Structures are given as structure tokens and as C-alpha cells.
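Annotators were shown the component list below and the corresponding predicted structure, then asked to write short factual statements about the assembly.
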Amino acid sequence: MIKRFFVLALLFAMGLLFTDLLLSYTPDTELNSTALYYANHTAKDLGAANIVTAIIVSYRGLDTLGEVTVLFLSAAILVLVLPKGWRRGKRKPRILPSTGELLGTGSHLLVPLILLLGVYLFVNGHLTPGGGFQGGAIIASAALLLLLTNPLQPFSRHLFSVVESIAGLCFVVIGLLGIVYAGGFLDNRLLPIGQLGELFSAGTMPILYSLIGLKVGAEFSSMLINLSETKDS
Amino acid sequence: MSPLLTIMTLLLSIAMIGGAWVAIRSFSLPMAILAAGLVSLLASVMFLILAAPDVAMTEAAIGSGLTTFLFFFVLGRVKGGEDD
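Structure shown to annotators:
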């Protein structure tokens, strides 16, 4: 009884807090100084049409490197923790019920389109909404669809690890080259900025975001594949 | 914000609260997982209305796609240990 009263009191206090927040909320009529700086300087200095991408890849590129590292660590820990299960050739193959016409045909039709959408998103990350993380997640959902169609799908694990390592290495190397030849770590003015709004513009930004997309896609896909290959309990 | 958009936002919020209620209260686990995925999907539409297409894409791909798969996968693995 006293526990329930405590919970209710806590809920009431939180409600009071949020009501206060809601009532005292007034929408900003103008940008604050940081946002104003980004809005005024992004197109002129970095040549990127998408300010969000400019912040993620260039202004706050170091934070993105941290995010990618966290994702890499979680993928590595997943492999470490999961029980070593099904290896090709060691166990007799699992007998699976047939997938069904609808899922099979649908995935054959959709997987190339989903992959194309993912690649489009991270290649055009500096022009349109979206970018490396979104594109990578969409590529992983294509891998998921393949896995759902045929759980014994032979994926090349070697390819995934090679793509992931090379993408990560290139990201850091381009960042370091920025220190030497441009304004700082992950500065995108290593290459000419070009015309605002064209595909090959904004310096190294599209290259960096494509590398992030490949890395995230490979990491998510290998996570899903590792999960689906664990031992049946 | 136009009145139509406001009404749509309100409907989305109510549907999200309903989905979250089902996800917590449902006795069938697959139903709860699907309801949680539905909340994510509606949240991504909400992000789109609030002019954050980047976040909407991430939410749709990870929140309602991969996470739902992960929950179903784990549910398939722990089958049999349902009644403690």
C-alpha cells in the first residue's frame, strides 16, 4: 500500500514537472548563436547543402568517430559473448520449413531496391536528408530480409570484416590527412569544395559519409548474421 | 501548423499511447512486440511531421525494423521457459 502511494506520488511529481515545462514553453523566434553560426557558415565554408551532415561529419566529426567506435565495440562484444554455435559442415544442416512463395518472390524483388536506397542515402548524405547511419541501417535491413527468406544463407563473413576494417581505417586516415593539409581533424576542405548542391561537392564529406555507411551496414549485418547463427537451445 | 496537421499529430499521439499500453498490458508476447514496433513506426511519422527526416529514417529502420526482429529472435530462443 505504501509502495503504491510512493509510486503515485512520484508520478504526480513528474507530471507537475512536465506541466511546468509545457506551460512555460515559448517557441524561439530566432536561432541561438551556435545555430546561427552553422546556418550562416555551412554553405559558404564547407559547401554542404545539408547542415545536419556538415555538423555530423565535419564540425563534430570526432564525436562521429566515437559513435562508430561504440558500434564496432558492441558488434565485437556480441561475437565474443554469443555461444559458438553452428559452423558450416560441422553439424548436419538444419531442416527448415519452406519459406513460402510470397516472402521468397518479394525478397527477390525488394532486396536490390532496398540496397540501392541505402547506397543512395549515404552517397547523397551531404545534399538530402539521411546519411551514413541511416543508409547503413537500411542496408542491414536488406540483409535481414535475406536472412528471413533463407536462414541458412551463406554470407561471406570475411567480406564483412574486410569492408568494415577498410572503411574504418580510411575514415581515420582521411581525418588525419585533414590535420596536415587542411584546417584540422576531419576537415572536409582536403578536396575542392565545388559547386553547392552537386554530387561531387563539399570536399571529402561524401567520401567520409559513404565510408561510415559501409562500416555501419557491415557491422549491423554481421551482428544479425551472428545472432541468427547461434546454437539452438 | 495547419489544423489538419494538428489533428493528425493528436491522432498519432493517441495511437502511440494506445500502442504503448498494449505493449505493456498484453498477455501475448508476440502481440506486445508488434505493439512496441508500431509505437516506433508512429514515432517515425511524428518525427517527419516535426521536420526531422534524418531521425525519422533512423527510427523507422532501427526502431521498428531491426529491434522488432531482435525481440522476435530472442522470443524464439527462449520458448519453453515461458512459465518460469
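Statements collected:
1. Chain A is about 65% helix and 0% strand.
2. Helices of chain A lie at 2-23, 33-46, 51-59, 61-81, 101-123, 132-149, 157-181, 205-228.
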